[in-house]
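Box 3.1 A note on notation
Throughout this textbook, protein chains are presented in two layers. The first layer is the amino acid sequence; the second is a token string describing backbone geometry. Keep the layers aligned when reading.
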Amino acid sequence: MNTATQDAAVWIETLHRRFPELLTELAPGRRSPSAVGAGRPAPGRPSSPLRLHISDTVRDITDGVVELDEAVHDRLRLGRPRHARVPQRLARIASLLGEIDAHPDLAEHVRNEARRMTGRCGRALGDPEPVVRVGGRCPWCESVSLRAFPDRRAVLCVNPGCRCGADDCPCGTDPAHRHTWQEADGGAPPGTPPGTDWRTVSATMDAAAKGARR
């Protein structure tokens, strides 16, 4: 399998393992995922309040997995997938990774979506966002303050005093602003030797993120 497919397998397995934890956290006091949506509470017993940020995450991941399952089946010409719960859909996608591997762009899409959903799942469960130090100096403030954030697929300068001098940049007026370089934008990552592309930084971010999610 190519690297994207191998990474996709890791993210799918992690999401498959952690998604039930979201259901457990959806309503405090409920002891098992099967209790979620089981019906009204017994008379005289107060219902457990839903945690809205968890509910939003469950909905986002559920929609994302359904769309990913359908996209994979459509690309592989397997027809419309049968209705199933999130864990079953994830297992179904994982079983198709051998066929997905023959389509590099599809493998990358599966990896990216599985990684995104796993990251959101982890943040909702309170996992700290992994951070990777990037060698070199910020091109604006020249401090050794560059950090890569795998979940955001970006490099940020974390120096609160970083200023670029551009009139239209909010760094001069917004203390919370941080200069950001997105992987999707391409170009050379900041603080790296000439000729370095995003593949080097991306590999480091992927390794850190996978280690944090295990």
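The chain has two domains: 3-124, 132-213. Strands lie at 132-133, 146-149, 154-157, 180-182.
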